[in-house]
UniProtKB/TrEMBL annotation:
It comes from the Bacteria. This is Glutamine amidotransferase. The keyword Thylakoid does not apply. Keywords: Glutamine amidotransferase. Pfam families: GATase. InterPro entries: ChyE-like (IPR044992), Class_I_gatase-like (IPR029062), GATASE (IPR017926). Residues 49-192 form the Glutamine amidotransferase domain.
Length: 244
């Protein structure tokens, strides 16, 4: 099998490793079957998409809607590299699954708009599939409604031209979409469990996702949530797109 490519942007080693391990487990892959590149650590370099079964992009603290003068040189480089890769992915309809930050990367293509209109606080919320989502080969593997962990400052307020809306919440109309046949993005995190989201709440306490006094209540609510279905998305992605 050709490996999948995993792209990360998290600077915290423990959180970055936890994210990779969770994606690895959810996909049901071995480490040699999920090649990792940490974009915050260095340039992406040349990527021959023919070498991979597909591409998975994780989340992170970068936001496409951050003011340009507030973005670090690393963030600007990563954004430029991901934009160029996303254009190639869409043009070739290469299997792609971007979670959270991935929806920002894809959401700014071809007339799409990503801004601060539909941010949601950290926690678990019910996500509902649209009719197109229920019929979709990837998202359709999930129940019509399911709880998912999320937490984001920005969201898609206008879909890219030709994109198909697949899922929404009451507070964020675009929680998943597809471009072409094989390019996907989700606003929710398919890889997260209660332990991982609590660790991220701790790791990103200074990033403006919540007020300091909310930390323990957010963690308690996350532990009480019943989030079981989203991880199936990762295994389904591999099932659909793994190739010799």
């Amino acid at each position: 099998m050709r490996p999948f490519l995993f792209l990360g942007t998290r600077a915290e080693d423990d959180v970055a490793q936890q994210e990779y391990d969770a994606v690895l487990a959810g996909c049901g892959l071995r480490a040699d079957e999920l090649v990792r590149v940490r974009l915050e650590a260095g340039p992406l370099g040349e990527v021959d998409l023919a070498d991979f079964s597909g591409v998975i992009l994780g989340g992170g603290p970068f936001n496409m809607s951050d003011p340009q003068d507030a973005k670090s040189a690393v963030q600007r480089r990563a954004e430029a590299e991901l934009h160029a890769l996303a254009v190639r992915v869409v043009e070739a309809d290469v299997p792609f699954l971007g979670a959270c930050y991935g929806i920002g990367v894809l959401g700014t293509l071809a007339g799409g708009v990503v801004d601060r209109t539909y941010g949601e606080p950290i926690g678990a919320l019910p996500v509902r599939l649209t009719d197109e989502g229920r019929a979709d080969p990837l998202l359709g593997a999930l129940p019509h409604e399911f709880a998912a962990y999320l937490g984001h400052k920005e969201g898609v307020s206008r879909l890219p031209d030709g994109a198909v809306l697949l899922a929404s919440t009451d507070t964020c109309p675009v929680h998943a979409f597809r471009i072409g046949r094989n390019v996907y993005a989700t606003q929710f995190h398919p890889e997260l469990d209660a332990v991982a989201i609590c660790d991220r709440i701790d790791a990103y306490s200074a990033h403006g996702y919540y007020a300091p006094h909310e930390r323990e209540s957010l963690k308690a609510a996350a532990r009480e949530a019943m989030v079981t279905e989203p991880v199936r998305l990762l295994g389904r992605f591999v099932e659909l797109y793994a190739r010799a």
